[in-house]
Structure formats: structure tokens, C-alpha cells
Amino acid sequence: MAIVGILVDSPLPENRLQPAREAAPGDFSPAPKKSPKAGVLIVDDESLIRWSLAQMLVDHDYTVMEAGNGKEALAVLKNPPEPVEVVMLDYRLQDTNGLVLLAAIRGLSPESRVVMMTAYGTAEVVAEAMRLGAACVVNKPIEMADVLGLVSRARGTGAA
User: Fold this and answer.
1) Which pLDDT band holds residue 120 (cuts at 50, 70, 90)?
2) Which ranges of the chain would DSSP assign to H, the alpha helix?
3) Residue 57 in contact with residue 85, Cβ under 8 Å?
4) CA-CA distance, 132 to 43, in Å (whole number)?
5) In the structure, how many helices (H) and strands (E) does the chain have?
6) Are 37 and 62 spatial neighbours (Cβ–Cβ below 8 Å)?
7) pLDDT of residue 157
8) Helix 70-78 and helix 98-108: axis angle, to 10°?
9) What are phi and psi of 3, to 5 degrees?
């Protein structure tokens, strides 16, 4: 079983990710952007976590969009390259609180189901996330073996 999350003793390079875009000819992006299954937006300021979740989902035919902060997430949702069925949202982001962003996501894209991910899952955080419309709240680190089931359940389709 792989666990998502690491402790790095040196600073990571600054995140310079841009909202999702169509691939240009010769663009050898590691994560294909087209899929018949469903669109998933991963919002986490830790690039390794985004990459791990994206790889798992892309390998199972999901369309994956990524955002490293709240501003990028809202930009993707305002003009998504594919419909976003599920948002995997980290609670702690550098530019906003996950609950504030959850409320904004639900207002902007009410049809999207939100899976809140947190290492700070107090009873108050969980209760407020559910009140704001999260499909579920999961503790980090997330077992990679659980990712497909989480997305599938958030979509209301049962097992992956």
C-alpha cells in the first residue's frame, strides 16, 4: 500500500502551475487530459500529492485537472476544459482556508462533488465541510488504493 505524503527537509521549487490547457502538438505532458470517464479537479498545494493522485486517476481513464491553490481552482472551475464531476480539495492551502474555498466551489459549480482531504480533521472541520456540501471528508495521508473508490463514491457510482 502506498501512502501519499512525505516530509521533505529542503524547500520545494515554487509552484508555477497554470490552470489546465489543451495540449499543443509536441506537448508530452505526463498526464493525458482526455478521458471518457469523468473530470476530476485536484486542489492541493503539495505538487507530489497532486501528481500521485493525478497518476492514479489518469491510469483509470479519468480526465484530471490540477490546481495548486484556491485562485487556480476557481479559474479552472470558471472555464473548465472538461466538466468537473469531482473536486479533491485539500483543507490547508497557502492562499485560502479549504472551507472558504469549498463554499466558493459549491456556489460556482454546484454539480461538482467535493472530497475534502485534511490532516486536520477535527470534528468541527468535518461537520462544517459536510454542512457546506462536501460529499465526504478524508484524512491525509490518503492510501492510494482508496482513491478510486473515493472518487467513485463521490460521483454516486459505487465501486470504481
Assistant:
1) confident
2) 47-58, 70-78, 98-108, 123-131, 144-155
3) no
4) 17
5) 5, 5
6) yes
7) 64
8) 10
9) -110, 135
pLDDT digit string, tens, across residues 28-58: 444 444 435 789 999 999 999 999 999 999 9
At 148-160, the pLDDT tens digits run 999 999 998 655 4
From the CA atom positions of the chain, what is the Rg in Å? 15
Residue labelled with grid coordinates 463514491: 153
Q: Can you tell me the distance from the alpha carbon of 4 to that of 123, in angstroms, rounded to the nearest whole number?
A: 23
Pairing of strands 63-67, 86-90: unpaired
**Number of CB atoms found within 10 A of residue 100's CB:** 12
Residue 24 pLDDT > 60: no
12, with CB counted inside 10 A (0-12, 13-18, 19+), is: exposed
Position 1, amino acid = M
Domains and CATH numbers, the chain: 39-155 (3.40.50.2300)
Distance between CA atoms of residues 145 and 112, nearest Å:
23
What is the distance between the alpha carbons of residues 109 and 39, in angstroms, rounded to a whole number?
13
20 CB contacts (<8 Å, ≥6 apart)?
33, 65, 66, 76, 80, 81
